Amino acid sequence: MVKEAGFIDFAITWRAKVFEGAPQTSSAEAFGTVGINFKARKP
Question: Which of 8, 13, 28, 36 could bridge to 19 as Cys pair (CB 3.0-4.6 Å)?
Answer without folding.
Answer: 28
